[in-house]
Design a protein that fits this description.
Order of helices and strands: HEHEHEHEHEHEHEEHEH
Distance between the termini: 9 Å
Radius of gyration: 19 Å
Helix content: 25-40%
Bound molecules: N-carbamoyl-L-aspartate
Number of strands: 9
Length: about 290
Amino acid sequence: MKHIINIKSLATKDINQILGIVFSLGLDKSIDLENKIVALLFFEPSTRTLLSFQTAIYKLGMKPLILNMDQSSRKKGESELDTVKTVMLYADLLIIRHPDNSFIEKCVEISTVPIINAGSGDDSHPTQALIDLYTILQYHKPPFKIGFVGDLKSSRTIKSLIRLLEKLYKERGLEYYFVPDGELDISDKILDDLDNMYYKRDKIEEIIKEIDILYMTRIQKERVNSRNAECNLKLTENLVNHSKNELIIMHPLPRLDEIPPGIDNNPKAVYFNNVSNSILVRGAILRWSLS
Ligand code: NCD
């Protein structure tokens, strides 16, 4: 079965197949997908991941099944695994988001249908990493310099993107610049596994002239108890004006106060282009999983 558990579980061949589908079939309908039922089980809030998967499901001629957790038997005390066991009897594929890092693996052990991880804990968000990579490749080819700013401790999108870049571009001269907001630093576990070069910096000012890609993130207040959600590292128009012409600004969204909305119309800001790309890439992921 073709699950998407995390980046580690995907072979380079699988990643290339998924990107190949993006470029070849895209969101074209096909008879083998028609009327397939895809269930979305979100044990954590979501806007873009949920709706982009749902949009891709519709565009491919499939049917989404979305459990509203507030009205489900979870409210009567049913276990999360029993919820998953039940829904897999209705659907051809499950898309699951969960606050624990290991819940998806537990589901995969008992599953009779493919499972796609739509975000697990503070560790993995493989489909977002594939979307981010696709968007990056529209503007830059490796080697490139990428700066990660904000809550590097909780960001599952950053961790998955780094693992994906390391898997595909192991010795390709990438450079990572980590700019953590205070104590919210990237873990040594991630750093220990890097083959490409990395640097730590304190401020966006110190990297803005160097980098090709700026990847901003919000403070994940729901995972960080020690502080409020206000960030210390904010992007400004002035900083963007001092960046390279080819810089692209990424953000997995939702954003809080780290990027002022005034920057959204700057051609360097591609975070909403990334949202559009997510339908195509998630469509390709669904097609790959079901093939
Ligand atoms: C992120 C997530 O859920 O990990 N959003 C996303 O899926 N694109 C980022 C976040 O919650 O801050």
